[in-house]
TrEMBL record:
Residues 31-307 form the NADP-dependent oxidoreductase domain. Pfam families: Aldo_ket_red (PF00248). This is Predicted oxidoreductase. Transmembrane segments: none annotated. InterPro entries: AKR2_Oxidoreductase (IPR053135), NAD(P)_OxRdtase_dom_sf (IPR036812), NADP_OxRdtase_dom (IPR023210). It comes from Desulfoluna spongiiphila. CDD domains: AKR_unchar. PANTHER family: D-THREO-ALDOSE 1-DEHYDROGENASE, NADP-DEPENDENT OXIDOREDUCTASE DOMAIN-CONTAINING PROTEIN.
Amino acid sequence: MKLKPLGHTGCLVSPMGLGLAALGRPGYINLGHGTDLAGRADVAGMEANAHAVLDAAWEKGIRYVDAARSYGKAEAFLASWLDARHIPEKEVAVGSKWGYRYTADWQVTATHHEIKEHTLDHFSSQWEESRALLGKHLDLYQIHSATLESGVLTDTRLLALLFEAKQAHGVLMGLSLSGPLQARTLAEARKIRFDGLPLFDAVQATCNLLEPSAQTALAEASDAGMGIIIKEALANGRLTDRNTHPGFSRQTTMLATQAERLSCSIDALAMAWLLSKPWADVVLSGATTTEHLLSNLKALDVAWDAEAEEALAPLAESPEAYWAFRKGLAWN
């Protein structure tokens, strides 16, 4: 894959990246996650599997990897892979996030898998934890699921601390978005400046064929120089052949028809839509297995066209409906 800058940051990334949300903990909301990890959900088994997926990603040219403090042991698994494979600094761009604590204690049936805390003290502690694991490999540190309701974008002391850390350590600062108000949240984040400089260098947003509502806001942010990272490109498995929900049969037929016409899988088709967007710097694969990663990577060869664009536009749901359905997804 040909590398390109992440917005105007100068940090080089591949058009497809690897997100570690499903690789660092035994429980997650992706469809079929439990089946994917059957027989290897212990810490050692998951670390070996994470390393195998990272190896495949590296071999195929992926040069952006995304983790978070709340992704179980994802940062630790990534750190041990970087060390074991002797990956030089800056050879792969690494992003992580702060703002949630992992609270499942390696259980799938936990009452709470992660708890949000967007406070100054929590940033300070998680910043040190991420740096201790990832060191100078850490290129981008993001607020995890920033929302207007959390108050994180109006906490002036906290925002000043983010800017100080950015300036002192040369780390890019970003935010990830969540919920039906992604566009409004991004608009507020873009207003935040210190010494005339924008605080945030990059944004990570949910955007897919079912939830495309942030497209215009992301395109505008890209034009202004922000790096754009796309997460949940497959809607946690809803845009794959694993989606057997009876209420989605018509949509599945629409996807299958275009996938057959373009000679690709449904997951590759859905990711190709995002890869066709000039404002999308990195589209994350959330694969749990090497097989799924290799299937996702075939999106790079899909000849997305106007016919597919028109045929699949009706898949879009209202943001409120999309996020309500996502909230109801079962872990594993």
